[in-house]
Amino acid sequence: MSQYEKLALRAMRLLDPERAHRVALTALKSGFAPHYGGPVRSSRLVVRLAGLELQNPIGLAAGFDKNAEAIKPLSKAGFGFLEVGAATPKPQPGNPKPRLFRLTRDRAAINRFGFNNEGVDAIAARLEYHDRSVPIGLNLGANKDSKDKAEDFATVLRHAGEFIDFATVNVSSPNTEKLRDLQGKEALTELLGGVVTVREMQDFMCPIFLKIAPDLSDAEVEDIAEVAAATRIDGIIATNTTLAREGLRSRHRGEAGGLSGQPLFKKSTRVLARLSRLTDLPLIGVGGVATAEHAYKKIKAGASAVQLYTAMVYDGISLGYRIAEGLDKLLERDGFAHVAEAVGIEKDQYT
Q1: Where do the DSSP E strands lie in the chain?
Q2: What's the pLDDT at 178?
Q3: N or C: which end of the chain has fewer CB within 10 A?
């Protein structure tokens, strides 16, 4: 990390977390951010993921660039792929502020944003002209006041599908009432079937991923693996934020919302490894990734690719670049010619 980035991070920690997030996006769009010309490249890091070719398996998770405002600079920050959103059919302000909290002692965050975004029409208009140098995905969401949340996901894909490289069905945010209820077997089958039908009717080529919660029982994870296979989606992202609060030390630990960052690592990796034993679908590991070693552990637990977000609050936008470079060195150290050779080799260690 450069001295400039260290100073910028120090200054942003003096700001309210949500304001700091807005400042970071503004800085990116203004050119005041690390610029690596594109994704980190190495023959060891190239990944084929559900038909997508990634130059490296390190991606930016949804939530950082909700409205697809900073795709161009983010595409040059070292990531192998990006996910923007979540987008809902109608614009919505989200939950009342404050709704984002740093848990510095735990290197974590709690958010209860509630899918605040400008709506799919505004987001799709930006995506239509986005930089195509790295694959871009859109996280699909549902409006808080919707009477048919399952249909909302299909609506977002219908409006934006032609402008994206993959879509993520997000039924795992804890901040929209009754959204996680859609992870049940029957509801999820219907929801995913509707989204897949839209893709087929519109002849969109984008893979469809499902993002799940880390707070599921083993039986619920088994149901999700079964539904994913039956509905012909292309992969699973494990996991979103957690409602658990065990072991936290920071003063905001009691705030309502989803917990992300370091405390999520073990829980999310366990779900990931269990899925890896249950399905042959490609998996993306998310939750607590802050170092190349963390990314490597996710891959060895079964992830073909990895995403991060919260760790950048503490380690800066250059973190994606540094993790990708570090992962390449770890693979070389262990004698792997290609990252795919390491996928799942330790999945049985998680019980």
Answers
A1: 47-49, 52-54, 58-60, 81-87, 100-103, 108-111, 136-140, 166-170, 208-212, 235-238, 258-261, 283-286, 305-308
A2: 67
A3: C
Catalytic residue among 42, 173, 268, 304: 173
Catalytic, 318? Answer no
Residue type present at position 86: A
Sign of CA dihedral 137, 143, 144, 150: negative
Q: What is the pLDDT of residues 44-83, one digit of tens each?
A: 999 999 999 999 999 999 999 999 999 999 999 999 999 9
Q: What is the H or E stretch that residue 195 is in?
A: helix 185-202
- Rounded to 10 degrees, the C-alpha dihedral 153/187/236/64 comes to 40
Residue with tokens 């990252």: 339
Dig out the tokens for 316 from the structure: 């800066």
> Is 187 within 8 Å of 142 (Cβ atoms)?
no
Residue 136 pairs in a beta bridge with: 82
- The residue whose two tokens read 């060891």 is 44
Summarised one tens digit per residue, pLDDT across range 234-257 is: 999 999 999 999 999 999 999 999
3-class DSSP state for residue 70?
A: coil
- Rounded Cα–Cα distance for residues 66 and 116 (Å): 8
Bridge partners of residue 242, in order along the sequence: 259
Number of DSSP helices (H) and strands (E) in the chain, helices first? 11, 13
Q: Would you say the pTM of this structure is higher than 0.85?
A: yes
For 4, what's the count of Cα atoms within 13 Å in the CB-facing half-sphere? 7
CA distance between the termini of the chain: 36
CA-to-CA separations, 82 to 12, 139, 167, 215, in angstroms, rounded? 23, 10, 11, 25
